[in-house]
Amino acid sequence: MLCALLFSCTALADQESDIVASVAQSQQDEDAIMNGITPASFFYLGTYQGCTAVGARWPSHTSHIRNYLVCGNKVQIRNDVAPQWTANLDSEFILKSVILHAVEYGKAQQYDENGFLISARLLGPYNNQNQNTVEVIISYNGLLASEAIRTGNF
C-alpha cells in the first residue's frame, strides 16, 4: 500500500513537472487533469532571474496557487506567494489599457506602479454576441497573483 502511494505521488510529481516544463517551453498556458481527477490551470508568466516562471491554479481551490521556475530543464517549486493585487484608479487604468491593447494587437503587458505585471491576450475573434474574450494574468516577480477570463465589448 505504501509503495502504491509512493508511486502515485511520484507520478503526480512527474505529470506536474512535465506540464510546467511544457508551458515554459511553449510559452502557452495549459489546462490539465492532475492525477486523473483534479483539474488545474498552468500559466506562462515570463522570465524571472534568467529562468522561466510558471504559475498554477487549481480551480476547485481558488486560493491554491503554486509557482515554479524552470531553469534549463530543471523545474523548481517556488515557496513564495505573490502579494495580493489591489485595484486603485491607476492600476485599473493600466488594466483597462492592457486589455484594449490586447484586443487591438493580440496581446499586451505593462507594469503597474506597484511592480505587478499585467498581461492580457485575446483568446479569439468575437463570440456570437460580438464580444471579445481576453485572458488577464497578473504576476509579481514571476509569481502568479491573479488570473481571469474577461468577455465584453472593450
Structure in words:
There is one protein chain. Helices cover about 25% and strands about 45% of the residues. It is built from 2 helices and 9 strands, in the order H-E-E-E-E-E-H-E-E-E-E. The protein has helices at about 1-25, 90-105; strands at about 30-35, 40-50, 50-60, 60-70, 75-80, 105-110, 115-120, 130-140, 145-150. The strands form 2 sheets. Strands 1-2-3-4-5 form a 5-stranded antiparallel beta sheet. Strands 6-7-8-9 form a 4-stranded antiparallel beta sheet, with helices on one face. The longest helix has 25 residues, at about 1-25. The protein is globular and about 40 Å long.
Give the low-confidence spans.
1-12
Please, how many domains?
Answer: 2
> In order across it, which strands form the biggest sheet?
1-2-3-4-5
What structural class do helix, strand and pairing data support?
alpha+beta
**Extended strand count:** 9
Tally of helical runs: 2
Overall pLDDT: 87
Biggest β-sheet description: 5 strands, antiparallel
Helix content: 25-40%
- Give the H and E element order: HEEEEEHEEEE
- Beta strand %: over 45%
Distance between the termini: 55 Å
Radius of gyration: 17 Å
